[in-house]
Amino acid sequence: MTPLLNLALLTLRSPAKAAEIVLAQQWRGEAVWTGLLLVAVLNALTHALMLWLFPVAQELAFLNMSPTALVGLSAGLLVVFSVAVTFCGRLIGGQGGFAQVLPVMVWLQLVRVGIQAVVIVVTLLSAGIGALLSLLVNVFLIYVLLHFVNEAHRFNSMWRAFGVLVMASLLALFTLTFVLGLLGPAKLGLPAYV
Question: Residue 113: is its pLDDT beyond 60?
Answer without folding.
Answer: yes
